[in-house]
Amino acid sequence: MISHNDTIAAVSTPPGIGGISIIRISGSECLQVLQKIFTTRTKPEEMRSHNIYYGKIYDEKALIDEVLVSVFKKPNSFTGEDVLEISCHGGSFVTQRVLQTILKNGARHAEKGEFTKRAFLNGKIDLTEAEAVIDLIQASTKHSLESALFQLEGKLHHAIKLILDDISTIRAEIEMDIDFSDQGLEYKKSEEYVNDLIEIKSKIGKLVNTAQEGMILHDGYRVVIAGPPNAGKSSVFNKIIENERAIVTEFPGTTRDYIEEDIALEGYLVKIFDTAGLRERADEIERFGIEKSYQILKSAHLVLWIEDCTVSRETSIPSFEGAELISVLNKSDLIEKNEIVAGESILVSAKTGNGINRLKQEIIKNIDIQKFDITGGLITNSRQLSAAEKSLNAINQAIETTEAKSGLEFIAFDLHEASEYLEEIIGKISSEDIINSIFDRFCVGK
Q1: Least confident of 5-9, 41-45, 52-56
Q2: Side-chain half-sphere exposure of 88, counting CA atoms within 13 A
Q3: d(CA 233, CA 239)
């Protein structure tokens, strides 16, 4: 069992050679460890919080490096404990020598995400803000960065807190009715409770509805390129990502497995998948590729159905449940302009690049997140969504219980459940396994 009361240390900067490396130390024994290894004009116990001190690190009598030490005393630090950040020269060897000297003198090596975990355990941040830290680190586009920053500021926490306050108010009113029921007094009629519960249901429902947008910002918008063999799907894929990523030949069935690539389109993370051509007649290896294509299509937000405009369409475009669809006619460079009848399809040439920019703009239009207000807090992962949906179910049960006049005690129980699920999102109550699974996503040193 790992103790969260001891002093921990780890390198917080990426491995490799650079200008500086930063080693973070957190815990009650920070200054005692520093006193054993650091020489400077100011004694460690006299160091002031939020100040930087120059000195030298020694391993016994051997000089290791000249460093700067930043001091953050509890509770005004990231973890809520005494924290030191040692900035040393950025060579891999010297960084490890400094770290090993720290570990030898009273600290232990930090686990993944343990600094952020301590910040959570010490009440400096809630679980949504902790998850926002890793989202911020992993953000690869403008909008995913903005979403993580709003989350880090506590926007989702604030939205949930307002709903919890509303539920608490109703619970207090119900308890009052229960207390005075033996005297024939009634604080509120059941119809009034139903109206209040419907309003709370609406607020939780809006929160649940942010999940798709939040997950798209966090995990990316999934665009799957599909269609019959030899339609030029891989060529279109290469043009969209602006890289010769997929192998292209004149022979049908070249793509035997899907290829995935991440790109940024106008600040959005877009995951593009190139899949095997869909046809009935195929050898055994190609059939495996086709099966994988259908699996990828099940999780698509948008399907680009690519066809060869020089070949007459023999079958209708299949429907893909849960995904939008854009019909694309490729190889437009091979026919005369007056012979082309595109209809609602987008005409492109993967060879010349004509129509590719328009296709990208259509992808952006389908993402359509801008109509949602990300500044109000978004659900960004399946853990948060599952808890919000359970809370919504509990509110629905409370409404049914109220309408059936089954008793105030049963309504109070349903509301208690709804509150617990919302509190699980922000971490007021949560199992150790859930907490560990969140912080295991972090790197060591964060």
Answers
A1: 41-45
A2: 27
A3: 10
247: how many CB neighbours lie within 10 A of its CB? 12
Extract the tokens encoding 254: 């070249």
Other beta carbons within 10 Å of 160: 27
Dist CA 370 CA 49 (whole Å): 42
70-117 per-position pLDDT tens digit? 999 999 999 999 999 999 998 889 999 999 999 999 999 999 899 999
Rounded-to-integer distance, Cα 131 and Cα 383, Å: 11
Chain-centroid distance of CA 306 in Å reads 31
Both structure tokens of 170: 């109703």
Where on the phi/psi map is residue 428: left (φ > 0), alpha (ψ -120 to 50), or beta? alpha
Q: Are 59 and 37 in contact (CB under 8 A)?
A: yes
Q: In this structure, are residues 72 and 51 in contact, taking their beta carbons and an 8 Å threshold?
A: no
Structure tokens at 164: 């919890």
Give 297-365 as a DSSP string: HHT-SEEEEEEETTS---SPPPP-TT-EEEEEEE-GGGS-GGG---TTSEE--TTT-TTHHHHHHHHHH
Q: 430-439: per-residue pLDDT in tens?
A: 667 777 777 8
Full-model pTM: 0.76
Q: Which token pair is 248?
A: 């292209």
Task: List Cβ<8 Å contacts ≥24 apart for 162-167.
Answer: 162/203, 163/200, 163/203, 163/204, 163/207, 163/422, 164/419, 164/422, 164/423, 166/196, 166/199, 166/200, 166/203, 167/200, 167/415, 167/418, 167/419, 167/422
Which residues 6+ apart lie within 8 Å of 132 measured at CB? 148, 149, 151, 152, 380
3-state SS assignment for residue 26:
strand
Task: Give the domains, in start order, of the chain with CATH numbers.
Answer: 8-125 (3.30.1360.120), 132-210+376-427 (1.20.120.430), 217-367 (3.40.50.300)
Residue 225, judged by CB atoms within 10 A of its CB (0-12, 13-18, 19+), counts as buried
Q: In the structure encoding, which two tokens stand for residue 291, read together?
A: 């099966």
Cα four-point dihedral sign 138, 141, 144, 148: positive
Average pLDDT score over the chain: 85
